[in-house]
Amino acid sequence: MKRQYAGTDPLAGDFYTRQFEKDRGEHTLVVNMGPQHPSTHGVLRIVIEIDGEYILRADPVLGYLHRMQEKMGEVQTWGQYIPNMGRVDYGHPLAWNWAYVGAVEKLMGIQVPERAEYIRVITCELNRLTSHLLWWGAYILDLGAFTPIMYSFDDREMLLDILQRPTASRLTYGYFRVGGVRKDLDDRCIEMIKAFIPRFRSRLPMYKDLVTDNIILRKRVEDIGIIDRDMCRRYGCSGPVLRGAGEPYDLRRCEPYSIYDRFDFEIPTEETACSAGRYLVRMAEMEQSLRIIEQAVEGLAHAEGGHIMPKAPKPSMKPPKGEAYFAVEGARGKVGVYAVSEGKKVPYRIKLRSPSYSNLHAFAEAAQGTLLADAVATLGSLDLIIPEIDR
Amino acid sequence: MMNAIDVHMLIRLIIAVVAAMAWVGINALVLVYCERKFAGHIQRRPGPFEVGPHGILQPLADGLKLMGKQLFRPAGADAFLFWLAPMLSLLPVLLLFLPIPYGPMLTAMNVSLGILLILAFSSLNVLALLLAGWSSNNKWGILGAARAVSQSVAYEIPLLLSVLAVTFMTGSFNLSAISTSQGAWPWQWNLMAQPLAFFIYLVSAFGETNRAPFDLAEAESELTAGFHTEYSSMGFGLFFMAEYAYMVVVCSVCTVLFLGGFRGPVADGWWWFLAKTYALLFLMIWVRWTYPRVRFDQLLNINWKWLLPLAVFNLLATAFVMKL
């Protein structure tokens, strides 16, 4: 039997394509962007209806990387769950580490030693830099320039070398513990951080000159993929997407957790609400992260306490009955963990609030009426991490 | 009855086409190596380094790997057109090398309408891209093909007009004549008399050869691989070779038209020709590894709103000056 193809055969395509095809216009084409598409960075799938190259409708299809992270929380002990937090968002895993241990600490009423807080800030900000560098390189790659990612990975490599010393890992960190962190920052690590800061400061203007100010890049990202305040509010966008819309909402400043109130740094915002705005916000954030790290390294020298509290809870800890929500500012936005304890070794429920999930859904509206190439530029500017969307 | 001169011409043509094939093959190998090495150094890495000293045998290894792969045709693809397309993209290129004067005595066929021959046959490439995209029964392929057609059609016009401006000055379509009409020193080249035409030609050349920042037909981050999404093995290999061959052709023609061809300050010859051509090729590689891709409407806007009016203006100005 001769096989028929999508559009003529009612059985062609899967459930989502068939549902999507129902509302298809007369002279349009429905294409699947993903799950194996070079610019969806993983297994995100977006069904798109295009007229010529103009996008009429877009619909993200999720679930290709669903790993039941939340269910796993209900079958592992409180301590065993920490490594999972390194795998939800491979871009900025320490934010997830922090959100989780923060929630557990809140449940148990633990006060973390000052030194541990400083170490958390330093490593988390370093990790934010690696995340933004990864995004930057990959985003420019989406826009068709191959070279910048090599330069960004050059810097990222140094950061990974630094983070590798205390965390013993280069990508999926499980470094934080309830009551502190796993290992202290040694002298060599501090030296490396101190050497990295001036080097990276001198690299940022180079990135600006070579890439950000390039006219082709500017024309590709400016006024593309408008996500304004109202849209952000409706979809629950946070992080650089929200700050790119002009809203200076940053948990480190708005709901200061840990010791962030001690540092002097700015919350960069852009009023343009387009891809360029989000791009510039992230570039400016890298500079601010450097400022925080610089101050934190100074503060670390005379911080009190150890890297973990004495008699820290064991992995088999039993937090008292109750529930707690703890949110931190991740590289992509508000990272929240909601934990419910019934006083047992195993959590009753863990709920993960991931910023990528909310940010992604603004895409369908932002992409409407734009060109296919603009959709790529918009999608990239949201800085999505797929395992974080599907969890 | 064939007389002796016809036989002589036929043998000459066959030898020339075979030589052109070899030339395309060698250039593809050299350019692949150059491109990868050059890209490597731009990106702060050594580039290919494992196969042979400094990775010099890498293109051969690449070629072998490509040939060893399965030739795959997707279900629902039009078999005849699907396989015709890669051949159609490479075969016309061989003819393009015939009228190019590499040296004072080194021209395969000294045709009086050489430049016209090149422009005519190079347009066939569009047909190949369209066929490839359409016959592979792939939506991304169709999009890539549509882009390729509108892009090539658009950029051919300013290219043609800039070439015409040069032929106005020389009064000949013969590439040898155009070469010899220019002096030995850079300031005697057409580049000095026609800087605008040179610029337009160069930009259009990027568009014609589908090279970054105008590589929209195969924009891998948008269209997966555009028109050659479904091609594997040497099906893809032929497109690849054709792309490099077209690069060599447009750079060779540019050398002849604007950079004095084989003329040089000392000792005219093919070495000057090669040096200039490769300098232009390096420029193309350099641009590819430096710039992001433009968007499709921007690409067409650059052409219709800037290049075309400029080219027309340049042509009229040239005609006016020549008449004076």
Describe the structure.
The complex is a heterodimer of chains A (391) and B (324). With 391 residues, chain A is mainly alpha-helical. Chain A folds into two domains: 15-61, no CATH class; 70-390, Cytochrome-c3 Hydrogenase, chain B (Orthogonal Bundle), CATH 1.10.645. Chain A is built from 15 helices and eight strands. Chain A has a three-stranded antiparallel β-sheet with strand order 1-2-3. A three-stranded antiparallel β-sheet of chain A has the order 6-7-8. In chain A, helix 4 packs antiparallel against helix 5. The longest helix of chain A is centred in the N-terminal third of the chain and has 29 residues, at 114-142. With 324 residues, chain B is mainly alpha-helical. Chain B has one domain. Chain B has 13 helices and two strands; from the N terminus they run αααββαααααααααα. Chain B has helices at 4-42, 58-68, 79-96, 114-122, 124-135, 139-170, 175-181, 190-193, 195-208, 220-223, 233-258, 270-288, 296-323; strands at residues 101-103, 106-107. Chain B has a two-stranded antiparallel sheet with strand order 1-2. In chain B, helix 3 (79-96) runs antiparallel to helix 4 (114-122), helix 9 packs antiparallel against helix 11 (233-258) and helix 11 crosses helix 12 (270-288). Chain B starts with a helix and ends with a helix. The A-B interface holds A 3, 5, 29, 31, 37-39, 53, 140-147, 150-151, 154, 214, 216-217, 219-220, 371-374, 376 and B 39, 42-45, 75-76, 137, 139-140, 142-143, 212-213, 215, 219-224, 289-298.
- What is the total tally of β strands of chain B? 2
Q: How far is the N terminus from the C terminus of chain B?
A: 51 Å
Based on CA atoms alone, the radius of gyration of chain B comes out at 20 Å
Radius of gyration based on Cα positions of chain A? 22 Å
What's the number of domains of chain B? 1
How confident overall, as mean pLDDT of chain A? 87
SSE class of chain B? mainly alpha
Low-confidence stretches of chain A: none
Quaternary organisation: heterodimer
Q: Give the end-to-end Cα distance of chain A, rounded to a whole number of Å.
A: 41 Å
Strand order of the largest sheet of chain A: 1-2-3
